[in-house]
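pinging the channel bc i need a second pair of eyes. not urgent but kinda urgent?? the chain im working w is below, pasted from the shared doc
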Amino acid sequence: MARKNDSNFKKAVNELFGSATPDIDRPPVQQETSIPAIQVEDIALQSAAESTRDDRIHVYNPGEDSDGSENPFVRRDNAIIPEDMIISGNIVTKSNMKIAGSIVGDIKCEGDIELQGTIQGNVSAGNLSLQSGTLNGDVSASEVVYIEANSCLKGNLTAQNVRSNGRSEGQIQASGIVELCECAIVQRDITAGALSVETGARIKGMVNIRE
């Protein structure tokens, strides 16, 4: 009889308060907790950044890793010699060189050389550009030699191609073409695969065109 009264009491309470009052026999619902969305996004961004981080060491000079193998991430920088600098001694470098000062000694450069100053010595380079510069010595270039106006080369020249608008006082040997612009002066022999001469250029020597 007591159970029936209890059941009627529960029913009366539910009808009185409606769904706003939970069933007294229903166990309390445990409130769920969640991580704020902003924290989840921060964690995701941090993980993505860590996964794309570049921890490689970039070696700029001399261009090889410690084990002697070539480094694929080498950047070839410029070595700049300012106007007020005078260097006495031989130079060996893998960098490009821009020379506005004076160097007394031989230069072996695997990059390119831009000369606005003076060099007294033999030069080996990839490309050589004389821009109002003076070079007293023999030149060997694996690619092109440019002799701009108001520049002078006093020595023998060996290159793939030569383009001159200045003065050259030495033999020129080129496996490709030699181009002499209107202000060019050559005071020795020329041996080349082809020769181009503009009006005004002067040659004081023999010319040999290879077949």
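so The two ends are 128 Å apart (CA to CA). and Residues 19-24, 33-66, 70-75 have pLDDT under 50 and may be disordered. — does that match what u expected or am i reading it wrong
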